[in-house]
Specification:
heterodimer; A: about 30% helix
Chain lengths: ~120, ~220
């Protein structure tokens, strides 16, 4: 259950960025989470809901999670291939000298915020 | 309005870990992050490892536990400095906790710091502590199927210590199946079968570690 800690970090960073941009509310957070991390989607969603509740700045915000499938490059033959989290061997030459290109992401991709100007535009 | 962030979630942890790594390198100290389940014999393995290496290296231990200082007391009784971190419920150690513990250690005097992470095969794998190597311990009674259930920890580990091998006849542990599965997940990681409390196998594991310490 380290998802609560992870999500606390996400919201701290998201709120800071939103406030620095002059936002009045945080509407949406999009994360990229690699399949080879230990962060579980359901637990992330649960933590997000628990942490956004009761704060007028984040209440009702939406969480998007983009799960990133593992991808590696073979250091012997140069092949690039997708794989599951168990089998990282190169499917072309069976080498195990490989480099993980994607699948370890724990990243805040983007946020969607309400800016006072957005309200002004909407009224016009 | 959409704002692009493209920011690592663990940015703060990673930044502190990078600072720690630099401090460790400057002081010439090797840092080992030890991962395992509760009851797998982490503290016994640490005690046996200290015994094997204390003539050559100055060693300190950072003990991570949810509560209590039982483990740190055990280490101190053996004459080795130990700092206890109580996470107060958190399931893993973070770099900021290590920084606080390191601040009370005399780094320049040390060659090796062993961090005993919180007993957990899941959460600690995502957190960089500034260590030189992560090593996991699996004990025979836990079963040979653990690589299938907890692939992440086997993948991040630089070596795997298989503890309590003296109990293998009692438990239905298929060592070949275990080795095959570990090899599939992490082909370059050596496996060291040991019985920490009996001392068997410790020499091979300790010499692997000693080589790493001498190399920095």
């Amino acid at each position: 259950m380290h998802e609560l800690g992870i999500m606390t970090g996400v919201l701290d960073a998201a709120k800071e960025t939103a406030k620095n941009a002059g936002a009045t509310r945080l509407l949406e957070v999009t994360l990229r989470i690699g399949d080879m991390t230990e962060a579980i989607e359901d637990a992330l969603v649960f933590a997000f809901e628990a942490l956004t509740e009761g704060d007028p700045f984040t209440e009702g915000a939406k969480l998007n999670i983009i799960m990133v499938h593992p991808k590696s490059r073979c250091l012997e033959c140069g092949a690039e291939y997708s794989h599951d989290r168990f089998n990282m061997f190169c499917p072309e030459c069976d080498s195990f000298a490989t480099e993980l290109l994607e699948g370890k992401e724990l990243q805040i991709d983007s946020i969607e915020v309400d800016l006072p100007e957005d309200d002004a535009l909407a009224k016009n | 309005m959409q704002i692009d962030m493209k920011q690592p979630i663990l940015e703060k942890n990673d930044a502190i870990a990078a600072q720690l790594r630099q401090r460790f390198a400057d002081a010439g100290v090797f840092v080992l992050d030890l991962l395992a389940s509760p009851g797998s014999g982490k503290t016994s393995t640490i005690l046996a490892t200290i015994d094997a290496l204390r003539d050559e290296f100055n060693i300190a231990v950072i003990e991570g536990d949810i509560a209590s200082s039982v483990d740190a007391e055990k280490i101190k009784r053996q004459g080795t400095s130990a700092v206890q971190i109580n996470t107060g419920g958190a399931c893993h150690l973070e770099s900021a906790m290590i920084k606080r513990a390191v601040d009370v250690l005399d780094l320049d005097r040390l060659d090796l710091i062993i961090i005993e992470n919180v007993g957990n095969l899941v959460c600690p794998t995502d957190f960089d502590l500034g260590e030189n190597a992560k090593v996991m311990i699996l004990s025979v009674p836990e079963g040979d199927d653990k690589p299938l259930k907890y692939p992440g920890v086997f993948q991040v580990s630089d070596a795997i210590v298989l503890n309590k091998v003296d109990t293998m006849p009692v438990f239905d542990f298929n060592e070949q199946a275990f080795r095959d599965e570990v090899h599939r997940l992490n082909p370059t990681a050596p496996i060291f079968p040991i019985a920490a409390t009996k001392g068997s196998g410790v020499e091979e594991w300790a010499s692997w570690l000693a080589e790493k310490i001498r190399a920095i």
